[in-house]
UniProtKB/TrEMBL annotation:
EC numbers for this chain: 2.7.7.8
Any GO CC annotation of this UniProt entry: mitochondrial matrix
GO biological process: mitochondrial mRNA catabolic process; mitochondrial RNA 3'-end processing; mRNA processing
Quaternary structure and interacting proteins, as annotated: Homotrimer; in free form. Homooligomer. Component of the mitochondrial degradosome (mtEXO) complex which is a heteropentamer containing 2 copies of SUPV3L1 and 3 copies of PNPT1. As part of the mitochondrial degradosome complex, interacts with GRSF1 in an RNA-dependent manner; the interaction enhances the activity of the complex. Interacts with TCL1A; the interaction has no effect on PNPT1 exonuclease activity.
Protein name per the record: Polyribonucleotide nucleotidyltransferase 1, mitochondrial
PANTHER family: POLYRIBONUCLEOTIDE NUCLEOTIDYLTRANSFERASE, POLYRIBONUCLEOTIDE NUCLEOTIDYLTRANSFERASE 1, MITOCHONDRIAL
Compartments it resides in: Cytoplasm; Mitochondrion intermembrane space; Mitochondrion matrix
Span of domain S1 motif: 662-733
Provenance organism: Hemibagrus wyckioides
Amino acid sequence: MRRLLTLTCSLSRAARRSVWSSHRSEKTVGVDLEGRKLEISTGKLARFADGCSVVQLGETSVMVTAVSKTKPSPSQFMPLVVDYRQKAAAAGRIPTNYLRREMGTSDSEILTSRLIDRSIRPLFPAGYFYDTQVLCNILAADGVNDPDVLAINGASAALGVSDIPWNGPVGAVRIGLIDGEFVVNPSRKEMNSSTLNLVVTGAPSSQVVMMEAAAENILQQDFCHAIKLGVKHTQQIIHAIQQLARELKVVKRTPQKLFTAPPEMVEYTRLLAGEKIYAVFTDFSHDKVSRDEAVNKIRLDTEEQVKEKFPQAEPFEVIEAFNVVSKDIFRNLVLTEYRRCDGRDLTSLRDISCEVDIFKPLHGSALFQRGQTQVLCTVTFDSIESSVKTDIITTALSGIKDKNFMLHYEFPPYATNEIGKMGGVNRRELGHGALAEKALRPVIPKEFPFTIRVTSEVLESNGSSSMASACGGSLALMDAGVPISSAVAGVAVGLISKPNPEKLSEIHDYRLLTDILGIEDYNGDMDFKMAGTNKGITALQADIKIPGLPLKIVMEAIQQATVAKKEILGIMNKSISKPRSSRKENGPVVENVRVPISRRARFVGPGGYNLRRLQAQTGVTISQVDEETFSVFAPTPHALHEAQEFITDICKDDQEQQLEFGAVYTATIMEIRDSGVMVKLYPNMTAVLLHNSQLDHKRIKHPSALGLEVGQQIQVKYFGRDPMDGRMRLSRKVLQSPAATVVKTLSEKQSITMGAADKETSSSS
């Protein structure tokens, strides 16, 4: 029977694919975005997928497919997976790894996948627990138009033309600010001079679903104008996708089941546990741990009684019934009583404390505590060579080759009193770190002699650890003496809303919460994170959990976050108000060393031997600035002192000053090589190569052909140093002619005539 049912389902799915292939011919719609044409097409490629679209802007094309299972997943959340991949062929490159093929997932791919996920996830129906996969494949990249925003629109179109239940479509655009003018979907070259990088995803009726921004201290009014402009243009894309769906006569499938708790079970749970949960949420003496323990105790007792009342109920329904009641009580406390579970009013911050210079050996450190969220930030300086080098595909697509400032965010399991695996970076950690890095990057000086790494380790977490990382990172940078242009603070604003009973897509009532707790994020409708200086905004990220947010609420959230941001900056300034005038005594130093071309070969050594020995023994890093200048990076002043002594000793070459151009000297053979002989003109000289071509007028393949041996003395003529590589130029060949020549020796700084040299030669022979 099960096999028959499976076969029937397979036939049904196959039949649906057959209809899809035969009736869905290629269709294309276009959108004019301020002179830039965006094309969305479907029906030609990947026709076995539930939905597929190709979005093109300029010569950049992205294909997105969407597939959703028809059987529910055993998980208790929406099992959506979004994968965005940058193909090397699309950028006209071949991967540089040993297999010459795409391997693993880069940071930029993960961050873009998160961007797409946050744009489409809120619009799936509540309780739709069916495995769904959205794959974004860059078909071609012209190096002018970024494919990430195209992928968001492609995901929207692929879901929109499929039969997958989804309350879309959405549209996305990038807004730049160049010379005071806003630009929609700017090119890569234009973005290099833009002070704003805002990606906004809009839903129908001019609502906002997702925002992500990096800005160079943009004023609040300019930022708000950019959001409004972005939402306006997203509506054009939404209308185009809606037109495509109408032309294809899309009919959404009806899921077997939406995983929601039965109303009668919810009411029984409310009767059993409602008052107890309310008592916990109104007991302001609780902290995160004690509150969770109290609620979990009520949960266990209640679920046992619900199971007795409803013996046929599925485990998920029992759990979800309690979650619904708990969430309703929590939200109503805010909506009707204007109270929060920790006793604060809606706009108050938690208690904040700041410390700097926590550990003396570190280049910079700070501890930022906001309520029960605690973050330790450290600053480390290293050489410019330590900057992050992007892979060739990211470089080709974004133009970014390397960066000398990075922020790494770590979230160990003990931060939430849990046990978990350590090692590696998950998508959440990568996303939070990237947001905090965006917040701080605009204040980092453009020209700085070191690569800067900020490490943010979350020691306690109860909401908004990414914004705490921005605050702690700012304090640590000032403690390290980095001349940042201004302090940066960040805060998260939450939302509790009540939908319109007649039209669920509209909000009937709402409350905005400043500096949200973890439980407020979990039970709320939005996590709106914003960071900036006293002057303006440097970063923003909005995770919205409802199908759309009116612009009015977005503007209020920005204003409320701005007020809180200034208050936090005032508290931070009491700890440290400006960068230290100098870096720590034990911090790294950089010094330029001038090495004349005549000494460069000795400084570098054969095959770079001296440089490698210098770096290994002292720990410094050497990089060449120009022909005669080398930059020496030392991790400590002591290491620099050792390196200076090493360089002075290795470049000490007093006797070379006595060499005369065109004079003949007696050289001692130190080594026989296939290419020539290594010789010395005086004892403390570094041996130099006398090539086979300069040994004799005859062509020889090996010095042994001339009977030369180690320790033998030969006469060579000195022609100074090569102006290109600084190597000493010697020749024995030119002395094989009968012309009279002056011979010089360096023994005790005495000169002798050619006759004496001949006499010496004849006597030695």
